[in-house]
Amino acid sequence: MKMTPLRFLALSLLLFGTTAHALNSWEGSTPFATGLCNRAIGALAVSPDGMTTYAGTGSGTVFRYAYSDAVPDAFTFTAQTGAALSSVATSNTITVAGINSAANISIAGGAYSINGGAYTAVAGTVNNGDTVTVKQTSSGSFSTLTTATLTIGGVSGAFNVTTAVVDGACGSATASPPLLCPAPISARSALPAP
User: Fold this and answer.
1) Three-class secondary structure of residue 147 per DSSP
2) Within its chain, how far is the Cα of 158 from the centroid?
3) Average pLDDT of the chain, as a whole number
4) Which of 15, 18, 46, 161 has the fewest CB atoms found within 10 Å of its own CB?
C-alpha cells in the first residue's frame, strides 16, 4: 500500500493525537516547520491530487507538506510468442504514472527507450507521463523463453519473448524452418562404396 499524504496524516493523527511531531518535513520558518516542537493542528486540507497536505494551527499559521512519490503504478508488457530465432523484439509502450518526482529506471536482459529516444541498458530516471518501450533479442533456439525485466522506482515488469515452435516432423514442409532428414537406410545401402 502506497503511503499517500492522507494516509500518512491519518496514521500520524492516530499515533500522535492532534500534534504533528511525526511530520518533520514541513516547510516554513517556525520551529514546527523543522520538526523541533509540537503544534496543535486546528484545520487540515489535502490538495485535489492528494500529494500535498496543509495544516492550520491555532495561531493562524498554515504549514504545507508536499509528499514525494517516486513509486509508480504497476505496469505490464504484453508477452510475445512465435518470435523468429535471434530476432529483436520490441514491447508495447507503457506510460509512467502515479509519481510526482523522478524515479530510477533500470533493466536486466534488454534495453529501454524513454519517449522514443535511443535504447540504452544504462540506469537513468523517468518522470510521470514518460513513455517507455523495451527491446530484447530472442533466443537462438526453438520454443525458448527470454525475459527483459524493467524496474521503475522499485516496481518491475517483465517483457517475455518465446521463440517459434518447431511444428513439423523431419522433412515436413510445415516445419519452421524446414528440417533436413538423413537418407533412409535402404537408400544409404544403394550408395556406391567409397
Assistant:
1) strand
2) 8
3) 77
4) 15
